[in-house]
Write a structure and sequence with these properties.
This protein has a single domain, classed as Alpha-Beta Barrel (TIM Barrel), CATH 3.20.20. It contains eleven helices and ten strands. It has an eight-stranded parallel beta barrel, surrounded by seven helices. It has a two-stranded antiparallel ribbon with strand order 4-5. Strand 2, helix 4 and strand 3 form a beta-alpha-beta unit. Helix 8 packs across helix 9 and helix 9 runs parallel beside helix 11. The structure holds 1,3-dihydroxyacetonephosphate. 1,3-dihydroxyacetonephosphate (13P) binds next to helix 10. 1,3-dihydroxyacetonephosphate binds next to helix 10.
């Protein structure tokens, strides 16, 4: 796979006014989301839910790609059309989550390292054959007393870089995601400092492993105060801090940065992205790769009547995609 093809895919992922819908919840994670709205976590419910999302009329107006889970990339619509075919026919690029989740980091209580490198080359080959053109790996960084440690940051960056190099070898664009969690009572300055160190370490590791940045997408967390911090930040403070942190750490050659929502409200996630783009132009397109902030409202409604509410739930998905697509252009007016 040439770097030009990888770069082309990466650029399409962050095409103007478009972003990614993350529907790559593992079966354990979707179990929590389903439980919260009172529906059983059966394979058929997971399939029907993802079908509802992916068959949203007009989704491709604002969505360039969707991140799937291992089970989902093998599933089809009720009518028998494989999800990946449906997506490609609609101009939506199939992506796949390839990490195997965070595990406790030995010797560092309270910290985790993401696993999944063993056998990854073969899994990537299979996913490419199934139609995936980009792949996501999420590292998780906790902020707390005396954490994160340098060792934890380094272990996660190394894994991210190894996975990214393997992706490019196999023709998939790596979407590298170092998520600094919002959990805790730390202030926004602490989040800034941690995020800066994490991003520096990540781009060092990508360089060490010969990852081509032209064919890489960063999935970043925003610089925000901890959920339990007494002093919360304004929309503009979050936008300014996040931009400053990214500008000082992320090379301009990167084709784009997309954000996770990380537990922010739908309105905050959209408003923050919109504010950053209004402060532009920026060195890279800034867009979204939201999971919860794309799905929560639609899931709630769909759960009340799995068959009867499909069309209305899809209207909500489309509205969230449109709002975030406008925010990716700095043209969202819903905050006014
Ligand atoms: P959230 O937007 O819900 O944080 O999910 C995005 C994601 O893919 C996390 O890995």
């Amino acid at each position: 796979m040439s770097i030009e093809q990888l770069a082309e895919t990466a650029q399409a992922m962050v095409a103007a006014g478009k972003g990614i819908i993350a529907i790559d919840e593992s079966n354990n994670t979707i179990a929590k989301r389903f439980e919260a709205v009172g529906i059983p976590n059966s394979e058929e419910n997971r399939r029907a839910y993802r079908e509802m999302l992916l068959t949203t009329p007009g989704l491709n107006e604002h969505i360039s790609g969707a991140i799937l889970y291992d089970e989902t990339i093998r599933q089809s619509t009720r009518a028998g059309v494989p999800f990946t075919k449906l997506m490609r026919d609609n101009g939506i690029i199939p992506g796949i989550k390839v990490d195997k989740g965070p595990q406790p980091l030995a010797g560092f209580p309270g910290e985790v390292v993401t696993e999944g490198l063993d056998g990854l080359r073969d899994r990537l080959k299979e996913y490419y054959g199934l139609g995936a053109r980009f792949a996501k790996w999420r590292a998780v960084i906790h902020i707390g007393e005396d954490i994160p440690s340098g060792s934890c940051i380094e272990a996660n960056s190394h894994a991210l870089a190894r996975y990214a190099a393997l992706c490019q070898e196999q023709g998939l664009v790596p979407m590298v995601e170092p998520e600094v969690l919002m959990d805790g009572s730390h202030d926004i300055e602490t989040c800034y400092e941690v995020t800066e160190v994490v991003l520096r370490s990540l781009f060092d590791a990508l360089y060490q492993q010969s990852v081509m940045l032209e064919g890489t997408i960063l999935k970043a967390s925003m610089v925000v105060p901890g959920k339990d911090c007494e002093e919360q930040a304004s929309i503009d403070e979050v936008a300014e801090s996040t931009l400053m942190c990214l500008k000082t750490t992320v090379p301009a050659i990167l084709p784009g940065i997309v954000f996770l929502s990380g537990g922010q409200s739908d309105a905050d996630a959209t408003a923050h992205l919109d504010a950053m783009n209004r402060m532009g132009p920026q060195p890279w397109p800034l867009s979204f790769s939201y999971g919860r902030a794309m799905q929560s409202a639609a899931l709630k409604l769909w759960a009340q009547d799995l068959v009867g509410n499909v069309a209305r739930a899809q209207q909500i998905v489309h509205a969230r995609a449109r709002d975030n697509g406008l925010a990716a252009l700095g043209q969202w007016t819903g905050g006014a």
